[in-house]
Design brief:
heterotetramer, A alpha+beta (747), B alpha+beta (81), C alpha+beta (158), D alpha+beta (287), A: 747 residues, alpha+beta, Aldehyde Oxidoreductase, domain 4, seven-stranded mixed beta sheet, six-stranded mixed beta sheet, 27 strands, C: 158 residues, Ubiquitin-like (UB roll), DNA polymerase, domain 1, 2 domains, five-stranded mixed beta sheet, globular
Chain lengths: 747, 81, 158, 287
C-alpha cells in the first residue's frame, strides 16, 4: 500500500493559520543555524580553491602550511578512497578535486587550525602546481567539435555517435508526429533561447561541524535539506558504517534545492579525523557562489504550430543543458516538463546534457522545468500575438486536463490547470487597464512533485500532549503543517503538539526535503502515525470498558463506543487514556514508515504587469498575481509564502540574476553585490490565489506547492517585456543592456 | 501481458519501439521482464526508472500490482529540489 | 597579531572581549560573546543579516571593526524582547508568517525597529527602501512588509 | 596589523607617515572591511579617524558648509539645511549601499576608494567642492575633482587624509541633482551616473552649469561641453539633445559584468538630461 485515497471531509484545524512552533526562537535570535554550533576544542577549517577554470593539478605541497604553528591537519583529494559508484565518486570529486581542477572555485585542499586567521594564513602556504588547460563555460561552445573536453569517458550509451565528448546523455520524450502537426498549422513559430545559470541564493552559507573520534564514531552537525542523504554520502566517502555516523541537522537558512547534496561536510569530517578534534567549516559567500550548485545554463530551440483559432497542432523542443563539470540528469526533467501544460496530439522534446567548466549543478526549485517552460511559453505568447488571440483563452483551449495524455507519457488524473486558468481569467488583474509603456504577461507553470521515503514517530505524553519526531529539515514552516495534520487527526489542539526534526539515529531513512514532498509525504506519514496511535488508544479504552476493540472509535479527540450496542460509556479523551497508560500497558506511540507515492502534479498561472523604461532598459514590475492549485492548503500562510517566495526568485531569474564568466573562465560576480537577487524595493505586493483541487493520492488531498511557483515568472515577465517593447526577448536574464539592445537603442 | 510505454531515447534499446509488452504482475516483474527481453534497457534501469501506473507515478515500489489493461509508462527516476 | 581588549555595552549590559585588530564586530559578537543572533550571510554588507545598532545607528556588524566597539552602545536581536515580552515587531513577524527559514529575520527585525524609531508611520514604499539592504530569499518580502506595518500600527496605538 | 584610534590629527598623520608598510584610513570602513575580508589588502596599520575633532561635524562657513570627512550618509541626510542647499550631493551620497551602509559610509571614503562609479563623487565634482587634507606637512586644500588619479588611486601623498569638505555659498537660483543607473532599485554599484549643478539667472535661463559623469571613464569626469550646451538655455529639447551628445562624446567606458560600453555611453547621456531637468526644477526654473 503506497498511498491513501483522498476522502472529502470537513477540516477543523487543517486550513487555519496558527503560529509556527519555531517562531519565537527565530525572532529572538535563539534558533541555531549551521554556523552557530560550537564544540569544546573545536578547530576552524578552510578550503583552498582552484583559481583556474580547468587545470591539471601536478602537485600539492602542504609542508609549509603544516609547519605553521596552530595548523593541525591538511586534507587533499588523496585522503579520500576513490568510490566505485559513479555518482558517489562525482560528489566526492566535486567536494575535493583529484588530478584536475574542473572549475574556478573547485576545492583542491583544506586545512584545520586553531582559529580562522591561522587557517587563512595556512591556505596561502599550500603550494599547488597547476598546468592550465583550455576551458569551456558556454553550453553551445562545449557541444562544438574541438571544444576542450571537461571529463573524458562520461558519455552514456544513449548519446548518438559523433557528438562532442562533453555530451553525457541524451533523452527524447513525447508522442505523435510533430511534422504532421506542423503541416496542419496556420502559423508556425520557431525560436532559440538562452538562459543563464542562476543560484538558489539562500542567505545562510553552508556550514558543518564534524567530530570524529578515534573509535571510528562520528557526529556531524550541518545545515542540509536531508541529513540522511548526507549520512549516506559521507559514510560512503569516509569508509564508515552508517550506524557510526550520526548527522544532526541545524535550523536551515534556506536551501531551495541547493542543500540537497554535500560540499564541505566530508571535508570537515576528514579534517576532524586527521586532526583528532572537532572541526567547523563555514563557507564564505564567495565560496557559495563559486563552489556550490547553481542551476543548469541552457540553450533551447522551440517550434510550435497553431491554427487561426488557437489550437496548438504540434510542439517540438531541442534542449541543451549544462550542469557543469559533472554529468547531471536535469535535462530529463526539462524534457518532460516543457509541454506539460498542454493537451497535444503531436509533441516531442530532445535533450542533451553537456559538460562545461562550471560548478556541478544542484537542484533549484523544480530543477530543469523553468527553463524549458520559459521557452515554450514564450513561443505560445508570440503565436497569440501573431494570430491576435487572447493568451488566456489559448491556454484554456489547449490546457491539459483529466484524461489528457501528458507530454511525458502518463494520462493525467484530476489536475488543477483549467481551474487556475479560469481563476486568472475572472480575476480583476486580468482586465485592469494598462498605461502607455506598460504591458501584461502570463505563463503557466508545472511541477511533478515527489513523495519518497518517510518515517514519523508520534509519542503520546501522559499529560495528554503529543510529541512528533520527523526527519525532514523544515525549510518553509513544515513543522507547523505536520503539527496541524496530527492535531486534525488526533482531535487535540495544535498547541498541544510539538514537532521536532530528529537526527539520523532517531528514525529510519527519510528522503531529502525536495520535490515539494514534505507536506505531502511527511504529512501522509504523520496522519498514518496518528491513526496508529489512535488505534492503540482505542484498544486501551476497549480494555478499560471491557468491550471489543472494534466497538470503539475515535471522535473529536476521544475514544467513544462505536454504537448503541457497544455499551454506554462517556467519551474517554486522549488525555484520560494517556494518563492511565502506564497501568493499561505502557506508553502509547504511533509510527509510520513508508516510501510514499501518489504525489499529485501542481499547476500554476502567473499574471504580471511591467513597465519598461525605453531609454535605460529598466523593467519595473508593477503588479503580480499568482494562481496555484495546492490540493489542500494545510497552513495557508506558508502556502502563500511558498508561492510568493518562488515567484520572486523567478522574477530575479527573469530580470537580473546570472552567473557571469569571464574569458578566463572565472566567475565574475561571486557575491550578493553583483549577483543581484531581488531586494524589497524592487517588488510590488505579490498577490496569491490558492485553488484546492484535491490530490487523490493523499488523505487530505494535499499537493506539494513549493516548486511550481518558480516556473511561470520567467516567461510571464519575458512575455510582458516583449509586449511592452514590441520585440521578442529570447535570452535570460533580460538585463537592461540586453533590453536596450533589443529595442535597438544601442548597437 | 503489460503494455509498457518507453520514452523516445530508449527506442534504440528496444528494437526501435517505444511500446513493448512484458509479462508482469508488479513493478519488479516488469523491470525484470524488460531487462530480459531488452538487455539494452539494463543500463537505464540500473540508473533508475520510475513507473507511471494509470497516471500515478511510483519511484520505486517493486510490489505495486499492475492490473490488466493498466496504462504503464516508464519514466526516468526523478530527482529534484 | 596582537590582540586588543575592548570594553563595550551590549544590549545595556557591560561586555568585554579581546579581539584581533582586523576582526569584525560580527565575529566578536558571535565568537567572543556567544551572541549568534546576528548572522553572516555575505561578510560584505550586501545582505543585512548581521544588522545591529551602534550608538543607535543601524549598521552591518560585518562592516564594523570589533575594536571600534570600545565605549560604544551595541544593540542586537538578543536585546529586542524585554524579558519574556516580545517586541511588537517580533510578535507581528510570527503572526503574519513573515519568516520562513528565519536566517534573515534577526537582521530585518533590528532594521525595522530602527525604521519605526525614526519614522513611526512609514509608507509601504518607505519600508521597502529602508529594508532594501536586508535580503530575504524565502518570502518575496510581501508578508514582511505587512508585518512591519502591522507592528507600526500597534506601536502607534492605532 | 595594528589598529589606532587616533586622538589628534598630528597623531594620525604621524603614525601614517611613520609606518613603512601598508596603511589604511578607517572612517566609515564600508570599503576597507570588504577589502580586508576578501584579502585584497593586508594593512600593517589601520588608523581610525572618526574620533578626531570636527570629523563628524557639519557647520556653516563663509555662507556655505564645512562637512567633516567622517560624517556618515545618514547623518548628512538628517541635516535639513544642507540637503536644501545641496540636494544632488545629498542624494548621491545617500544612494551608496543600504540603510546599514548609510550608517557608516562617508564621502571621504567613497572619494578615496577611487572607484569611477563612486556615487557621491560626481555631485561633489559638479559642485566645485574642495577637500581639506591633513598631512605630515600640515593642511592643504584640493578640489575634489583633482583627488582621484585612476581606478583605486588618488593624488593624496603618504600620511595624508581628508578631514573635511567645503561647500561654497549657494547663489540664488542654484541647485543640483544626481542620478545613476542600476539594474535593481537599491544595493548596486552605478553602471553609469550623472550629476548636474546649475544656476538660473534673472532671465530664467541657465547662467552657469557643471556636469560630471560617473562610471564611464577611469575617473569621474567633468564634461564642460555638456555644461556649455545648456548654459543660456531654458533646457529646451535641442539643448538637452546637445547635452546628451556631449556627454556621450566624453564617455570612455569599459565592458564588464555591470554593463557594456554602448549601454554606459547611452545611459550617461539619458541620465545627464534627466538630472539637468531635476536640478533646473529645484532651482526654480520653468521649462
Amino acid at each position: 500500500m503506497a498511498f491513501d485515497e483522498y476522502q472529502k471531509r470537513e477540516f477543523k484545524q487543517v486550513g487555519t493559520r496558527p503560529n509556527r512552533p519555531d517562531g519565537v526562537d527565530k525572532v529572538t535570535g535563539r534558533a541555531m543555524y549551521g554556523a552557530d554550533m560550537t564544540l569544546p576544542g573545536m578547530l576552524i577549517g578552510r578550503i583552498l580553491r582552484s583559481p583556474h577554470a580547468h587545470a591539471k593539478i601536478k602537485s600539492i605541497d602542504a609542508s609549509a602550511a603544516l609547519a605553521l604553528k596552530g595548523v593541525k591537519a591538511v586534507v587533499t583529494g588523496d585522503d579520500f578512497a576513490r568510490p566505485e559508484d559513479d555518482f558517489l565518486r562525482d560528489v566526492q570529486e566535486n567536494c575535493m578535486a583529484r588530478g584536475k581542477a574542473l572549475y574556478d572555485g573547485h576545492a583542491v585542499a583544506a586545512v584545520a587550525a586553531i582559529d580562522a586567521a591561522t587557517a587563512k594564513a595556512a591556505l596561502k602556504l599550500i603550494k599547488v602546481e597547476y598546468e592550465i588547460l583550455p576551458h569551456v563555460t558556454d553550453v553551445d561552445a562545449a557541444m562544438k567539435a574541438g571544444a576542450p573536453i571537461v571529463q573524458e569517458g562520461r558519455t552514456l550509451e544513449n548519446v548518438p555517435a559523433g557528438m562532442s565528448g562533453n555530451v553525457t546523455s541524451h533523452s527524447e520524450f513525447g508522442h505523435g508526429d510533430p511534422a504532421a502537426g506542423f503541416a496542419k498549422a496556420d502559423k508556425v513559430v520557431e525560436r532559440s533561447f538562452k538562459t543563464a545559470a542562476t543560484h538558489q541564493g539562500y542567505i545562510e552559507p553552508h556550514a558543518a561541524v564534524a567530530s570524529v573520534t578515534t573509535d571510528g564514531k562520528a557526529d556531524l552537525w550541518c545545515c542540509t535539506q536531508g541529513h540522511f542523504f548526507v549520512r549516506t554520502l559521507c559514510a560512503g566517502m569516509m569508509g564508515m558504517e552508517a550506524s557510526q555516523l550520526r548527522v544532526t541537522p541545524s535550523e536551515i537558512g534556506g536551501g531551495f534545492g541547493g542543500k540537497t547534496t554535500v560540499f564541505i561536510e566530508p571535508v570537515a569530517l576528514m579534517l576532524s579525523r586527521k586532526a583528532g578534534r572537532p572541526v567547523k567549516v563555514v563557507m564564505t559567500r564567495d565560496e557559495v557562489f563559486r563552489a556550490t550548485g547553481p542551476t543548469v545554463s541552457t540553450s533551447i530551440d522551440v517550434k510550435i504550430g497553431m491554427t487561426k483559432d488557437g489550437r496548438i497542432t504540434a510542439g517540438e523542443a531541442y534542449l541543451r543543458y549544462s550542469g557543469g563539470a559533472f554529468p547531471c540528469g536535469t535535462i530529463d526533467m526539462g524534457g518532460q516538463a516543457a509541454f506539460a501544460a498542454y493537451d497535444l496530439e503531436h509533441v516531442r522534446t530532445y535533450g542533451w546534457n553537456v559538460l562545461t567548466n562550471r560548478p556541478k549543478e544542484a537542484a533549484y526549485r523544480a530543477p530543469g522545468a523553468p527553463q524549458a517552460i520559459y521557452a515554450v511559453e514564450s513561443v505560445v505568447d508570440e503565436l497569440c500575438l501573431a494570430l491576435k488571440l487572447d493568451p488566456l483563452d489559448v491556454r484554456l483551449k489547449n490546457a491539459a486536463k483529466k484524461g489528457t495524455k501528458s507530454s511525458y507519457g502518463p494520462t493525467f488524473p484530476d489536475i488543477g490547470l483549467v481551474a487556475t486558468l479560469e481563476a486568472a481569467k475572472k480575476h480583476p488583474h486580468y482586465t485592469a487597464p494598462l498605461a502607455e509603456g506598460q504591458a501584461r504577461g502570463l505563463s503557466c507553470g508545472f511541477w511533478f512533485n515527489f513523495g519518497g521515503n518517510t518515517c514519523v514517530s508520534l509519542n503520546v505524553n501522559t499529560d495528554g500532549t503529543v510529541g512528533i519526531t520527523e526527519g525532514n529539515p523544515d525549510i518553509g514552516g513544515s513543522r507547523a503543517s505536520v503539527s496541524l495534520m496530527a492535531a486534525e487527526e488526533l482531535g487535540i489542539p495544535y498547541e498541544q503538539i510539538r514537532t521536532i526534526v530528529a537526527d539520523t539515529n532517531s528514525l529510519g531513512y527519510n528522503d531529502v526535503t525536495d520535490g515539494s514532498r514534505v507536506t505531502f509525504a511527511v504529512g501522509l506519514a504523520t496522519i498514518k502515525a496518528a491513526r496508529d496511535a489512535v488505534r492503540k488508544m482505542c484498544l486501551r479504552a476497549a480494555k478499560i470498558w471491557d468491550i471489543d476493540e472494534e466497538a470503539v472509535e475515535w471522535k473529536d479527540g476521544a475514544a467513544v463506543p462505536a454504537g448503541p450496542n457497544a455499551g454506554r460509556f462517556p467519551p474517554m479523551t486522549l488525555a484520560e487514556i494517556a494518563a492511565d497508560s502506564f497501568a493499561t500497558g505502557g506508553p502509547i506511540a504511533g509510527h509510520h514508515e513508508v516510501n510514499v507515492d501518489g504525489a499529485g502534479v501542481s499547476f500554476g498561472v502567473h499574471l504580471v504587469d511591467v513597465e519598461v523604461d525605453r531609454d535605460t532598459g529598466a523593467t519595473k514590475v508593477l503588479r503580480y498575481t499568482i494562481f496555484q492549485d495546492a490540493g489542500k492548503a494545510v497552513h495557508p500562510d506558508y502556502v502563500e509564502g511558498q508561492m510568493q517566495g518562488g515567484a520572486v526568485q523567478g522574477i530575479g531569474w527573469a530580470l537580473n540574476e546570472e552567473y557571469i564568466y569571464g574569458r578566463d573562465g572565472r566567475l565574475q560576480n561571486a557575491g550578493f553585490l553583483d549577483y543581484r537577487i531581488p531586494v524589497a524595493s524592487d517588488l510590488p505586493p505579490i498577490e496569491t490565489v490558492i485553488l484546492e483541487i484535491p490530490n487523490p493520492g493523499h488523505p487530505y488531498g494535499v499537493r506539494g506547492v513549493g516548486e511550481t511557483p518558480i516556473v511561470p515568472p520567467l516567461a510571464a515577465i519575458s512575455n510582458a517585456v516583449s509586449r511592452a517593447i514590441g520585440t521578442r526577448m529570447c535570452e535570460l536574464p533580460m538585463s537592461p543592456p540586453r533590453i536596450l539592445k533589443a529595442i535597438g537603442t544601442t548597437a | 501481458m503489460v503494455k509498457v510505454q518507453l520514452w523516445g531515447s530508449l527506442r534504440s534499446a528496444a528494437d526501435g519501439r517505444t511500446e513493448v509488452e512484458v509479462e508482469a504482475k508488479n513493478f519488479r516483474q516488469l523491470l525484470d521482464g524488460l531487462r530480459a527481453a531488452h538487455p539494452g534497457l539494463a543500463p537505464q534501469i540500473e540508473r533508475g526508472v520510475s513507473m507511471s501506473l494509470n497516471g500515478v507515478i511510483y519511484r520505486e515500489a517493486w510490489f505495486t500490482e499492475i492490473p490488466p489493461d493498466a496504462e504503464v509508462v516508464l519514466m526516468p527516476y526523478m530527482t529534484g529540489g | 597579531m596582537k590582540k586588543l581588549h575592548v570594553s563595550t555595552t551590549v544590549n545595556g549590559d557591560p561586555a568585554e572581549f579581546v579581539c584581533t585588530p582586523d576582526e569584525s564586530l560580527l565575529d566578536a559578537l558571535r565568537n567572543r560573546l556567544g551572541l549568534t543572533g546576528a548572522k553572516e550571510g555575505c561578510g560584505t554588507g550586501d545582505c543585512g543579516a548581521c544588522s545591529v545598532t551602534v550608538n543607535g545607528r543601524l549598521v552591518c556588524s560585518c562592516l564594523v571593526l570589533a575594536a571600534e566597539a570600545e565605549g560604544a552602545e551595541i544593540a542586537t536581536i538578543e536585546g529586542m524582547a524585554e524579558q519574556d515580552r516580545l517586541h511588537p515587531l517580533q510578535r507581528a513577524f510570527i503572526d503574519h508568517a513573515a519568516l520562513q527559514c528565519g536566517v534573515c529575520t534577526p537582521g530585518i527585525l533590528v532594521a525595522a525597529k530602527s525604521l519605526l524609531a525614526k519614522n513611526p508611520e512609514p509608507t509601504d514604499e518607505e519600508v521597502r527602501y529602508w529594508l532594501a539592504g536586508n535580503l530575504c530569499r524565502c518570502t518575496g518580502y510581501d508578508k514582511i512588509i505587512r508585518a512591519v506595518q502591522s507592528a507600526a500600527a500597534e506601536m502607534r496605538g492605532a | 596589523m595594528r589598529y589606532l584610534a587616533a586622538q589628534s590629527v598630528a597623531e594620525a598623520t604621524g603614525a601614517l607617515a611613520a609606518e613603512a608598510g601598508v596603511t589604511r584610513i578607517l572612517s566609515g570602513g564600508t570599503d576597507v572591511l570588504v577589502q580586508l575580508k576578501a584579502g585584497m589588502v593586508e594593512p600593517d596599520l589601520i588608523v581610525d579617524v572618526k574620533k578626531l575633532p570636527g570629523m563628524r561635524e557639519i557647520r556653516a562657513e563663509a555662507g556655505g558648509f564645512r562637512v567633516g570627512a567622517a560624517v556618515a550618509g545618514a547623518e548628512l541626510g538628517e541635516h535639513a539645511a544642507f540637503c536644501a542647499a545641496w540636494p544632488g550631493v545629498a542624494e548621491g551620497f545617500q544612494l551608496i549601499g543600504s540603510t546599514q551602509v548609510q550608517g557608516r559610509a562617508t564621502m571621504a571614503g567613497n572619494l578615496c576608494n577611487a572607484s569611477p562609479a563612486a556615487d557621491s563623487v560626481p555631485a561633489l565634482v559638479a559642485g566645485g567642492v574642495v577637500a581639506r587634507i591633513a598631512g605630515p606637512g600640515g593642511e592643504r586644500d584640493l578640489p575634489v575633482a583633482d583627488i582621484p588619479a585612476g581606478p583605486g588611486k588618488t593624488n593624496l601623498k603618504k600620511g595624508e587624509f581628508i578631514t573635511s569638505f567645503f561647500f561654497p555659498a549657494r547663489a540664488m537660483g542654484a541647485s543640483d541633482a544626481y542620478l545613476r543607473f542600476i539594474p535593481r532599485t537599491e544595493m548596486d554599484i552605478a553602471v553609469s551616473s550623472a550629476a548636474v549643478n546649475l544656476t538660473i539667472g534673472a532671465d530664467g535661463k541657465v547662467s552657469a552649469a557643471e556636469v560630471a559623469l560617473g562610471a564611464v571613464a577611469p575617473t569621474v569626469v567633468r564634461v564642460p561641453a555638456a555644461a556649455k550646451a545648456i548654459i543660456g538655455t531654458k533646457l529646451d529639447d535641442a539643448a538637452l539633445a546637445a547635452m546628451a551628445k556631449a556627454c556621450e562624446a566624453a564617455c570612455n567606458p569599459i565592458d564588464d559584468k555591470r554593463g557594456t560600453i554602448a549601454f554606459r555611453t547611452h545611459t550617461a547621456g539619458v541620465l545627464a538630461c534627466r538630472a539637468a531637468r531635476i536640478a533646473h526644477e529645484r532651482a526654480g526654473g520653468k521649462a
